UniProtKB/TrEMBL annotation:
SUPFAM superfamilies cross-referenced by the UniProt entry: RmlC-like cupins (SSF51182)
Organism of origin: Prevotella micans F0438
Sugar 3,4-ketoisomerase QdtA cupin domain residues: 9-135
Protein name per UniProt: Sugar 3,4-ketoisomerase QdtA cupin domain-containing protein
Classification via InterPro entries: QdtA_cupin_dom, RmlC-like_jellyroll, RmlC_Cupin_sf
Amino acid sequence: MSNINESGRIIDLHKEIDRRGNLTVVEQMKDIPFNISRVYWVYDVPGGKNRGGHAHKHCRELLVAASGSFNVTLDNGYEKRTFFLNHPYQGLLINTNVWRTLDDFSSGALCLVIAEDPFSEEDYIRDYDDFIAFIKAKE
């Protein structure tokens, strides 16, 4: 059984402060511990709805609240931990084999996702019971 604190952690990203507007940059293998293969964003999430609801077998991800705020609940199969994301200069680094659910999106929220791997349906576990069985089989 892995510790929930190993499932994900908030990392501070470099914030360049400028009176004309601030800038944050993420570089692979410098700011995050993986090469970037895919970037996507989630937005216009209706009130009361959630996103995520899956785990990845191999792909690590960095989630950033590029605008607005939302909660991310991580579940390692034994424990859960919820993170509140609301700063564009912080990201939640999510390790493999972790179920994630995103909810409580503020109006206008934009979740930026930086992924280690290209999309592969085989990497996803989309059923929670299958996720629990997968985690128990790894013990």
